[in-house]
Design brief:
Layout lengths: L7 E5 L3 H15 L2 E5 L2 H11 L3 E4 L8 H10 L8 E5 L7 H7 L3 E4 L7 H9 L9
Parallel strand pairs: 1-2, 1-3, 3-4, 4-5
């Protein structure tokens, strides 16, 4: 059984190789629409156009950091309900309590297993994992 509408993920990461890998993984294995941008500011600009179902966000980026991005996202009534997942080498910095305080669903550690990444995301978001074919 597959989902009738594909989910849209906005990936914000300044590393081109990570963007390429995650895009391929999520679009090929899960069938999701993946929009990639290289900065948090580009991400904020893209949200109004893309209306993503979730945001996958690197923590350490030049310019605006992830915490500021999430604060701006939550200040806007049109974007505050979009779930955010962190994708970061600093995943252990974020305790469950800290994630909840920040309004972030989970932190996924880099490096990650590309084959299991869609299942991890779907599980964290409580999406129907039957549509994920890994």
């Amino acid at each position: 059984m597959t989902s009738t509408s594909a989910k849209t993920i906005l990936l914000i990461d300044d590393e081109a190789s990570v963007r390429e890998l995650v895009h391929a993984c999520l679009s090929d294995l899960a069938g999701w629409n993946v929009i990639t941008v290289a900065s948090a500011q580009e991400g904020l600009n893209q949200i109004a156009v893309a209306h993503p179902d979730a945001i996958l966000l690197d923590v350490l980026m030049p310019g605006m950091d992830a915490i500021t991005f999430v604060q701006r996202l939550h200040q806007n009534p049109l974007t505050q309900s979009i779930p955010v997942l962190l994708l970061t080498v600093r995943a252990r910095w974020f305790t469950p309590g800290k994630l909840q305080q920040l309004g972030i669903v989970t932190a996924i550690a880099k490096p990650f297993n590309p084959v299991t990444l869609p299942d991890i995301i779907a599980g964290a978001l409580r999406w129907d994992t039957q549509s994920v074919d890994c």
